[in-house]
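wait is this the right file?? whatever heres the structure
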């Protein structure tokens, strides 16, 4: 790929988030200065699909769009709820309309946090929504950008049962042993800057163990901006992806350059449409 290996790919971020409305140009300029060569912009609900597609046009070849329906719906924190098949029905025609311009289907997945999926019925409807999106990705020959909070094993099991092809598990919070089942299935795992937060919290020490155990050939980098930054309650930005790269290098005892190179090659393998877009 020539010079492509000289930059970083943020494999999962939310550039359509209102937190970026006032200064997105500046945010993207900072990302470029931090050697970011591509930003994979994911969706959570159909209301933001058009905005993501417009951003991908405005920043053509730099902001790359994914459309999908997240397991948690609702625009405000108070109004958040578990996804329904009705949410998916509203989204499918738009995804079909843009299918040739998408990098992947996402953000999709399962979220079994008790406040969102307290009942078996809610979990089952989440599974059905995910199954339909896995089938859609297979039909369109697109990768999946996947969320799996409090549902690591159920998510990996479902993806394997459904014969999912190329998969990115973002900010995986399951046990490292479960992640290794994903590695064996050929899935990739992306590491956000929040991994550097204090290891006193069991969740983050688990994520640090995950970085140790995952082979570098299965690791991608992400920011999940504006969430999952190095500091809690502070807006995260794509330029912070270098923090993820430095952390992986430190844990693996290798150079940051090697992490940049291998994770970018991984992103190119994961997202087949990425290479041609970067060469435009």
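ok assuming it is, sequence goes like this
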């Amino acid at each position: 790929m020539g010079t492509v290996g000289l930059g970083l790919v943020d494999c999962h971020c939310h550039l359509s988030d209102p937190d970026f409305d006032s200064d997105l140009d500046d945010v993207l300029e900072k990302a470029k200065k931090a050697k970011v060569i591509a930003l994979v912009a994911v969706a959570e609900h159909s209301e933001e699909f058009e905005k993501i597609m417009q951003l991908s046009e405005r920043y053509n070849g730099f902001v790359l769009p994914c459309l999908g329906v997240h397991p948690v719906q609702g625009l405000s924190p108070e109004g958040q709820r578990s996804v329904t098949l009705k949410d998916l029905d509203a989204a499918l025609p738009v995804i079909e309309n843009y299918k040739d311009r998408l990098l992947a289907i996402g953000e999709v997945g399962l979220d079994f946090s008790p406040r969102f999926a307290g009942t078996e019925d809610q979990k089952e409807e989440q599974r059905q929504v995910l199954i339909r999106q896995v089938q859609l990705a297979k039909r369109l020959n697109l990768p999946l950008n996947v969320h799996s909070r409090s549902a690591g094993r159920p998510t990996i099991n479902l993806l394997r049962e459904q014969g999912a092809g190329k998969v990115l598990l973002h900010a995986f919070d399951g046990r490292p042993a479960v992640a290794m089942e994903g590695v064996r299935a050929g899935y990739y795992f992306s590491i956000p800057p929040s991994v550097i937060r204090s290891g006193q919290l069991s969740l983050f020490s688990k994520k640090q163990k995950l970085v140790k155990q995952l082979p570098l050939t299965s690791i991608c980098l992400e920011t999940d901006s504006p969430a999952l930054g190095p500091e809690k309650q502070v807006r995260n930005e794509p330029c912070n992806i270098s923090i993820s790269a430095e952390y992986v290098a430190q844990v693996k005892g290798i150079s940051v350059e090697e992490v940049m190179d291998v994770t970018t090659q991984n992103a190119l393998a994961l997202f087949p449409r990425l290479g041609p877009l970067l060469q435009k």
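The chain has a mean pLDDT of 94. so i think its the right one actually
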